[in-house]
Amino acid sequence: SKGGTTELFNPVTIFSNSASNTPLKVKGYASQTANLQEWQSSAGYALAYINKDGNITTAGSVSTNYLTTGYYATIGGLYNSVALTVKGTSGQTNNLQEWQDSTGAVLASISPALNSTVTLKFSNDYSFRINWGNEPILSTESGKLVISSWAADRAALIVKGRTSQSANLQEWQDSSANTLVRVRPAGQLGVGINLITGTNFYVDQTIGTTNINMVIRGGASQTGDLTQWRNSADSTLAKIDSSGNLFAPTLQSTTASTATLTTNGDTGGLLIGTVATGNKGLVINAVASQTANLQEWQVNSSTYLFINNNGALRAGASIAGTGWAINNSIYGASVIPFLIRGAASQTADLQQWQNSSSTVLGKIDAYGTFTFNTGGHAIAGGNAAQIALRIYGASSQTADLQQWINSSNTVMAKVDANGNFSAISKSFDIEHPTKENMRLRYASLEGPENGVYVRGTAVTNIIELPDYWTGLVHEDSITVSLTSVGSAQNIYVEKIENNKVYIGGDLEKAFFTVYGERKDIDKITVEY
């Protein structure tokens, strides 16, 4: 013992005399300041020591495999001490710490601070795992970092921001440190390089202009909606159902005065349906003092059909003063401007014209019959070279082509299927040729045949009938009346032959009238 110190120069072995006894106790003095124990080199340098607080410290390098690497290490013995400190030397380049297998192969290591970065490195041949109990919560699989939930009711990862956090809570970056996906401090999610503020979720297309911004794919036999938009009361304001149908109370453009809906279907365009029989399919509501059209149908920006601000329907160019107008100039001369096609076995009228009291003033029935109920009617030809009214009969027509009927449904006149005109009487009514403000009416001479006549003055014994009479008149129906002119004459009809009338007797001058019955049409039925 020297000054309270005992030196031993030979190896000392301390054995416990009991399994319950501590073989060696080093007990510090009250208010101990010196180390409790030291291991020194032959030069008296402390290679390792246990300080007054029980921390084990190593320094320098020795030949043993334990506590050999680094400047010093401390294993804390107090709750307020650092349990283990590995401190590199100035300009340290070797790893601060390594974990090796029995062959000395490095399984994991901690690098010194190189380029302001400390690296925890694991061998490519091994995966690491951090467990909570027996369950892995952080591990690697084939070079990928895996974060696992410890239990089904626990969050696998929580990223908690600081008070008044302003930086992103989380970022995913490319190799050039460009932020591709970020979670903003208030929890907003953003996809894309550029930050778009004021949004809860956004997709910035700078990642790739050919990429689809967002795809929502339903499951097999999807029945739930693909997307819903709800208010704070959890009421669905709009949605896209499992078939891709959009349900929204209002569609409105926020950047222009026009909102555009387009389709890319092979069999149809835009379909607007209702979910209830009492709902309107489409309502177009004008603003106060609307001046623009309520609706337009266009082809390559040319308007073909529109409903103006007063609700009038127009097809083609506008025609002022009309409720519904079709201007065929935009379609072409070969296009039918207006076509009404009835259903199979149509019974209702094809078209009607009614007054404000719903009284039918005119109509076209299911068979194409055009009926006027009130007022006068006129057909005025617009082209002098065109027939103003033409009535065509059907093949093998038997009914009359046209009839004129009074209010008692009595036929007053008609044109039958063969073109024969029949009337109660036939006359002409003209302005009086000699008396002012009067008219002149003559009635036609009637007879039991379809008769024709020629008349004239004979000064020779032969009257030549018109050459067409050979095809017009039955020759045996011809009769002749002769009237002497100037004096009494003994004249008579000698014969009718070869379309000539031969006069016998002493003819000087006579008036003649020749009658015949037409043979190009059927004889009339006088009584039936």
Walk me through the structure.
The chain is mainly β and 528 residues long. Among the domains are: 87 residues, no CATH class; 41 residues, no CATH class; 47 residues, no CATH class; 82 residues, no CATH class. The protein is 1% helix and 31% strand. It is built from 1 helix and 36 strands. The strands form 11 sheets. Strands 1-2-3-4-5 form a 5-stranded antiparallel beta sheet, with no helix packed on it. The relative contact order is 0.03. About 2% of the residues have low confidence.
Beta strand count: 36
Query: Low-confidence runs (pLDDT<50, min 5 residues)?
Result: 60-72
Biggest β-sheet: strands ordered side by side in the sheet? 1-2-3-4-5
Silhouette: rod-shaped
Keywords:
36 strands; 31% strand; 528 residues
Q: Summary?
A:
The protein is mainly beta and 528 residues long.
List the helices and strands and how they pair.
Layout (H helix, E strand, L loop, with lengths): L36 E4 L5 E5 L5 E3 L13 E4 L8 E4 L9 E4 L5 E5 L9 E3 L6 E4 L2 E7 L2 E4 L22 E4 L5 E5 L5 E3 L9 E3 L23 E4 L5 E5 L5 E2 L47 E5 L2 E6 L5 E3 L8 E3 L24 E4 L5 E5 L5 E3 L29 E4 L5 E5 L5 E3 L3 E5 L7 E5 L7 E8 L3 E3 L4 H4 L6 E6 L6 E7 L2 E6 L4 E8 L11
Parallel strand pairs: 14-15, 21-22
Antiparallel strand pairs: 1-2, 2-3, 3-4, 4-5, 6-7, 7-8, 9-10, 10-11, 12-13, 13-14, 16-17, 17-18, 19-20, 20-21, 23-24, 24-25, 26-27, 27-28, 29-30, 31-36, 32-35, 33-36, 34-35
